[in-house]
């Protein structure tokens, strides 16, 4: 029964986003600018203004730049982005001992990328030396499938009136089929990963990804910031449940109900105080009309003692309980730190750097590598805020 959950989530996602409309993605902020010049859209200043990303996250000197590959056969299969344009991915071939090993990453949602005409034609895969960026996976085939469907690679519907396509499931299938023809089918090792919307997509597609390969192929999945918790917000209600509940199965959006049923080895990486969920779910302005959380929601160090207590009991403990089912499984991995962060595998300063967050002297990259290669049983759950000093220098962006 579990294997069909992704299909039903796909149908329901399409219905949801058809109801939600363009405004929920803030696409109007892009389109009303009347600026479609690619050089402008790809400029550093525009990316910073749209995403709040610093120049440190954008292509730097000596960065490995990888071009965009459009899936040209996708349109015939109905596998198109929101606007009907072609989906795409970035692919950097592996070498040496990693020539038949594959890291397939499902991109997080960034508003502008929901239309393929806005996708960056070149993507930075990190700065040299690349081994320090990718650690154990430095010489693997590395793929980033661009996110342009708006529903975690799980939608299969359309809004004819708005001219929008929600074909995430088809995009997933078309991209994977294209990659299989380029060597993915010969993989002897594979890791499916993603953060945020991509982390949710990783959970939804994990077993499906496993079924692509013979049993002799080592296949695992890494979900970063993909646990969207059905937690009580600061008003005492459940804003996300109220919104989604009438439209989709809550299992699709709150995958803690699904992870215990996943048969493929799964690593859950999450910040116990997930900054995106605090800002977009727990302490939305709509549930905080007096603005009591306006400072805390942006910086956990500015939270009052009562607000910290709320985050400890109402969110951190909820997250720890949500993953308890994985603690007894040796094939699963856990890294739940006490940072106020989101998408830690996508940032060099949180993934693997001299000042990266650690639990028990183990950085995230080390923990993921030890788990994937069966060097250690990784079940790391951090102490509550503010005990972990390695988190204090992080700035959520």
Automatic annotation (TrEMBL):
Top-level EC class as recorded in UniProt: hydrolase
Top-level taxon of origin: Eukaryota
EC numbers, comma separated: 3.1.1.-
Protein location: Secreted, Cell wall
The entry's keywords: Cell wall, Cell wall biogenesis/degradation, Hydrolase, Secreted, Signal
SUPFAM superfamilies: alpha/beta-Hydrolases
Signal sequence, start to end: 1-24
Family indicated by similarity: Belongs to the pectinacetylesterase family.
Functional summary from the UniProt entry: Hydrolyzes acetyl esters in homogalacturonan regions of pectin. In type I primary cell wall, galacturonic acid residues of pectin can be acetylated at the O-2 and O-3 positions. Decreasing the degree of acetylation of pectin gels in vitro alters their physical properties.
Identification of the protein by name: Pectin acetylesterase
Source organism per UniProt: Rehmannia glutinosa
